[in-house]
Amino acid sequence: MKLKFKPNRKQLIVVGIVALVALGLMANRPESDGGAASGGLDDAGRQACNDFADGYADAENKPQRLALADKVMTSSRRTDNDAIADAAMELGTKASTGGSAWRSSADAFTTACRDADWVAP
Q1: Structure confidence by residue, pLDDT tens digits, 61-109
Q2: Residue 80: how many CB atoms within 10 A of its CB?
């Protein structure tokens, strides 16, 4: 039995509006004490920084860079530190490129961690 589904224009508009509202809600998440508002390092940010420090030296090729970026982005999803979250997103973007773009994003991520008073384990 083959199920056919052909959305009409109204359904597509509703889905688009719901997606935009969801994106808006995610972008406007509240800041909590000790996170982005103070530039502090919360547990999620610390975990992301630790994950990056543990895996950066071994991320020599594209699959390893992508795996590291995915791990760091997963860890940083719950951080309230915007600098760490933004730098993690940049890592994910540059992981497939490699070269100087990857090194630059890695330096920016390390700087975001250090600016939040992270110390390598």
Answers
A1: 999 999 999 999 999 999 999 999 999 999 989 998 889 999 999 999 9
A2: 21
The C-alpha atoms of residue 107 and residue 101 are separated, in whole angstroms, by 10
In this prediction, residue 30 carries a pLDDT of: 53
Cβ-contact 88, 27 below 8 angstroms: no
CA quadruple 28, 31, 35, 37: dihedral sign: positive
H helices of the chain, in order, are 9-27, 43-55, 62-76, 82-94, 99-115
**Which stretch of DSSP H or E encloses residue 99?**
helix 99-115
Question: Which letter, b or e, does each residue of 37-53 get, where b requires 16 or more Cβ atoms within 10 Å of its Cβ?
Answer: eeeebbebbbbbbbbbb
Contacts of 107 (CB under 8 A, 6+ apart): none
Q: What is the pTM of this model?
A: 0.68
Distance of alpha carbon 39 from its chain centroid, rounded? 17
